[in-house]
Amino acid sequence: MPAIRIWLKNPLAVFTANDLDARGGLVVENGVIVEMLAAGQSPSLPCDQTYDAREHVLLPGLINTHHHFYQTLTRAWAPVVNQPLFPWLKTLYPVWARLTPEKLALASKVALTELLLSGCTTAADHHYLFPDGLENAIDIQVQSVRELGMRAMLTRGSMSLGEADGGLPPQQTVQQGQVILDDSQRLIDTYHERGDGAYIQIALAPCSPFSVTTEIMSESAVLAEKLDVRLHTHLAETLDEEDFCLQRFGLRTVDYLDSVGWLGPRTWLAHGIHFNEQEIARLGAAGTGICHCPSSNMRLASGICPTMDLMAAGSPIGLGVDGSASNDASNMMLETRQALYLQRLRYGAQNITPELALGWASKGSAKLLGRSDIGELAVGKQADLAMFKLDELRFSGSHDPLSALLLCGADRADRVMIGGQWRVIDGQVEGLDLNGLIADHRQAAARLING
Ligand SMILES: [Zn+2]
Fold first, then answer.
1. Which end of the chain is more exposed for a tag (fewer CB within 10 A), N or C?
2. What is the distance, to the nearest Å, from the Cα of residue 406 to the centroid of all Cα atoms in its chain?
3. Confidence of residue 267 (pLDDT cuts 50, 70, 90)
4. Strand partners, 7
5. How far apart are CA 332 and CA 197, in angstroms?
6. 284: CA distance to ligand 1 center in Å?
7. What pLDDT does 14 receive?
8. Cα-to-centroid distance, 350 and ligand 1 (Å)
9. Which residues place a Cβ less than 5 A from the ion ligand 1?
10. Secondary structure of residue 178 in the 3-state scheme
């Protein structure tokens, strides 16, 4: 295929991590950014296509680092609307145990579509439900990701500690350790791509201290090291979880993490709220990443992640929308806005800027996934871009375009490019029957709840 050079010309504003002047736009060739142009500058070589971006604010494609796609089927479900984490989980587990391949495919496609329309180009999912008949859950998700042309970090989650053994989930939702490890190995062998430009990656992700055995935590860490893949889990989300760890293991959460060989740069943790000063220092020194999930943390009243302390200690910080039963929207722009505002309550308005929050949603999130080829607009990076117009009512009268995206509540990209391919044009996902998807998904959601 001949190389196609595209010039995205003279955008209204561009978000670059290092404040580079890119008002002339950027040039994409073979799916990679090959030139960043200052104001008034033109490409060094002729381009095959020029796209006039004068009405667009240009961002790197946003990266979501924690989700549970299947939960789009249980959004705003009355019995758990006002519950905190543990009772919320215990009410939902039996419903989730009825998940089927068809329902998971629809749920994944809905979550990915929502993310894509919000400017997200790479999505991590944490899937830990493998009831009978759903052994191929991750294979199903790979298919959904490919249909939309997105990048994904699909984590092979697991639950191995059922109620009978002192865990939280019901027995029918847990699997044997060897089954989990064998499937993890199979998925990595089958799907995990390495190096720049990877579209599908696999990580290992035992669910949480209260739903897996210490053995599966330790064995996952050994396997991840051996196969060079990343590790992910929920940690320090609530004080109930901290109590559980103290009672069962006689350890606080970070001591537990350390005891199973997870305290290192290969690991990224969802939530990371309830840490003391020494624990923050240890996580930072280890380079362990933290995915901040502000909406979920507010909905379940779990607490506020100490992002700035963790960053100062050395931990990379990224963002996640979390599962749709606790957010309940999969929108990366709105999540970035929530992060901006929630963190201001903790650290003050001057210290939490829109640029900082957008940096978490892009470069920071990329770091959690162990990637240096995405999350930034710079020469040599993948051409993953999100472009927003400020022509809706909500932006009328706004001045600074970049701040306006977050402060006025931008929620839908006009255009999204992934690896040099347009995946969203005029606010519509290319090749997708959105109304058909919604109709099928709504029906699946109703069936799941009604058993
Ligand atoms: Zn979660």
1. N
2. 18
3. very high
4. 27, 50
5. 21
6. 22
7. 97
8. 30
9. 270, 322
10. helix
Q: Which amino acid is at 275?
A: F
* Cα(359) to centroid(ligand 1), Å: 21
CB 63, CB 418: distance < 8 Å: no
Q: Per the structure block, which two tokens stand in for 294?
A: 């502000």
Give the torsion sign (CA, 86, 88, 94, 97): negative
Distance 14 CA to ligand 1 centre (A): 31
State in Å: Cα 291 to ligand 1 middle: 10
CA of residue 325 to ligand 1 center, whole Å: 9
Task: Give 105's DSSP letter.
Answer: H
Amino acid at 205: A
Distance 298 CA to ligand 1 centre (A): 13
Domains of the chain: 5-60+381-429 (2.30.40.10), 62-368 (3.20.20.140)
In angstroms, what is the span from residue 234 Cα to ligand 1's centroid?
6
CA of 239 to the centre of ligand 1 (A): 16
Q: How many Å lie between the centroid of ligand 1 and the Cα of residue 202?
A: 17
CA atoms of 7 and 371, how far apart (whole Å): 25
CA-CA distance, 330 to 119, in Å (whole number)?
11
Centre of ligand 1 from the C-alpha of residue 67, in Å: 6
Find the 158 Cα to ligand 1 centroid distance in Å: 13
3-class secondary-structure state, position 181: helix
Cα(69) to centroid of ligand 1, in Å?
10
In the sheet with 25-29, reading across from the earlier edge strand, the strands are 32-37, 25-29, 5-9, 49-52
Q: What is the mean pLDDT of the chain?
A: 97
Q: Please check whether residue 36 is in contact with residue 80, taking contact to mean a CB–CB distance below 8 angstroms.
A: no
CA of 197 to the centre of ligand 1 (A): 26
pLDDT score recorded for residue 1: 53
- Yes or no: say if 295 and 329 are a contact pair by the CB < 8 Å rule: yes
**pLDDT tens-digit profile of 355-414?**
999 999 999 999 999 999 999 999 999 999 999 999 999 999 999 999 999 999 999 999
Find residue 171's DSSP bridge partners.
Answer: none
- How remote is the CA of residue 288 from the centroid of ligand 1, in Å? 17
Pair 16, 41: CB distance under 8 Å: no
